Amino acid sequence: MTASSIQTIADIRTAMAEGLTAVDICAQYLERIAAHDGPIHAFTHVAKEQALERAESIDRRGAEDPDLPLAGVPVAVKDNICTRGLPTTASSRILEGFVAPYDATVIDRLTKAGAVVIGKTNCDEFAMGSTTEHSVSGPTHNPWDLERVPGGSSGGSAAAVAARLSPIAVGSDTGGSIRQPAAFCGIVGLKPTYGRVSRYGLLAFASSLDQIGPFALTVSDAATLLQAIAGQDSCDATSAVEAVPAFDAALREPVPNPTIGVPWQILEDGVDPDVHTAFSAAIDVLRGQGAKIVDVPLPHAGYAVPTYYVVAPAEASSNLARYDGVRYAYRAPVDAAGADLTSMYDRTRDTGFGDEVKRRIMLGTYTLSAGYYDAYYLKAQQVRTLIRRDYDTAFERVDAIAMPTTPTPAFGLGERSDDPLQLYMGDVFTASANLTGLPAISLPCGYGASGLPVGLQLTGRAFDEETLLRLGAGYERDAPWWRDTPPAAAIRG
Ligand code: GLN
């Protein structure tokens, strides 16, 4: 196997069985990053020394424990997930220089499975955004077209995997931040059920919506990564006790006679024709494989975006109160005239947070304030229940619900920077899975006329990631889009 043909976890396993070491694999990915990440800017920090040291220890341990599921597999980590000894900034000035004193549970589990953290990836500040443009270190570029956004907020993780700079990555998804960048970059991204993966060590954005999940080139790699990080954790009271099935084994069995619901009505307006065409072709593939396709109404789906943009900022305004210049990294310099504590808080938050984060804090503080709480926050929580009921009703007769992940393919960098409302509307198909807590996967399903990837989203029943992975693996067998490499990739497929 030639060095440049290594792309997936299976490739790494084969290469190691043929004699390559974890250090060789790690060195090869570090070289790819050094040679190709410049114009992409997926990484905010490359953990060169630590990764090589870790790979060395895997090589020593591997001999004793040949079954480590991720032995020597590099993993890129979104910069809002705590990693001991490496920077964790959530791409915010307010956390400039912050080094977490502990590993997030997902990092701990990945390390135990043999994975090697290769670096931290760029994101929208505190995961608030859909473009990875709101980052203190500058935007990430889409490997399919460097003039376009990679999506967000986990744009760095998605771009790293798409460009073959890391075989797998982890990110967080509060309203679509794993699935939307996965769609824009032509890879697989999965938001697990709320509670499936521990959030201990994830810098909180909106605690009733946040989930950590995998990015990968293939469904099978996403399943292997999910397997490693899923399961209850005593450090996160919201992590669920549900048993974690053996995802890898399940993938080998197709779902017998699946019924897939499509909410055709909500796809009538505002969906780019290229996206509609690629999505319809994907539905035809599923139908051709024996799936029964039925229409499902989701009458409250149209309220998902306004509901999300009340709930998420409200929770964010509370979660971000802790960044005050006292407890964490950044403190604004205080001149003698304003040397009291309150002005230090004010100036730290004013200069430490970017505009989008400040917009969310203000929105959230407003909707939670006395006199407005009932009209906004409480109402949004009620609508949230209605949205969940739509899904519960649909799941009485379908195994999964399919829709495009995003209404458009990747748009130009800077194109929507001045129009937050238009950006928010881009979350129209993703936000419901967070509001309802349900699992959802984005799979690459072809290209628009401009050659940009389009994503197919499948949403499943609570704690039924298995069905999504099995359907996804079946689709991928007949539609292996992942084999195409983007122009800016470190290897040519
Ligand atoms: N685009 C959404 C937002 O800006 C979702 C972000 C996310 O999932 N972290 O809030």
Q: How would you concisely characterize the structure shown here?
A:
With 493 residues, this protein is an alpha/beta fold. The protein has 16 helices and 11 strands.
Please describe what this structure looks like:
The chain has a domain at 3-254: Alpha-Beta Complex (Amidase signature (AS) enzymes). It has 16 helices and eleven strands. Strand 7 (259-262), helix 9 and strand 8 form a beta-alpha-beta unit. Helices cover 38% and strands 12% of the residues. An eleven-stranded mixed β-sheet has the order 1-3-2-4-6-5-10-11-9-7-8, sandwiched between helices. It starts with 8 loop residues before the first helix and ends in a 15-residue tail after the last helix. It is globular, with a radius of gyration of 21 Å. The chain is an alpha/beta fold and 493 residues long. It has helices spanning 9-17, 22-40, 48-64, 105-112, 155-162, 179-185, 219-229, 247-251, 273-288, 304-319, 341-352, 355-368, 374-394, 420-425, 431-436, 465-478, and strands at 43-46, 74-78, 116-121, 168-173, 188-191, 211-216, 259-262, 292-295, 400-404, 440-447, 453-459. Glutamine binds next to loops.
Question: What are the main properties of this structure?
Answer:
16 helices; binds glutamine; Amidase signature (AS) enzymes; alpha/beta; 493 residues
